[in-house]
Amino acid sequence: MNAPLKRPPLPDSWVERIFDRMQGLYGSLWLDRWRSGETIEQNGLRFDRGLLLAKATWGEELAGFADQPERISRALEGCRHRTLPPTLPEFLDLARQAHVDGPKALPAPAVPPEVAKARASEMERAARKIAAKLPDPIAWANGEPPRIRGPWEAAIIELAEAGDPRFVAILREHIAKGAIRSERARAVFEGVCDAN
Prior knowledge:
mainly alpha, two-stranded antiparallel sheet
């Protein structure tokens, strides 16, 4: 089985800029996180071993973003709002979450006021037409009683007891037609009539 191709690390100049920016944001809090106190000499210069290892690790782990520098920039911008410097996994998460601007939307069309007014009028007419077709919300109580009357009758009586004038009138009609005959219905109807 072939091993996956390893991407070359992020260029050293990029890693240096990331570390410079982080040092600018967090000062010694950033550098002290990586310092080991052990120095290494390279090209006649002395470097802290921990800092060199950290930079090499960051370069390797951020290799996948070499072709997406805008994600690294946005991750750095995201650090401006953090009080503590991010760990490498936190920085990777910031880079992954950084949204790249997609294509720009077209500008809103310029609609002349008379066209906007005509469209608003059309919508108003359509809304009235839809509202006119809505079913009567109390049609269930006005019609013929269902075969099983218990819940139907109880609902009408309760609404009449609550004083809803529509249901008082419906209860009166049903008592007059003999569709509702219970003593409770008569007592409710008489009580409502006596109260008026």
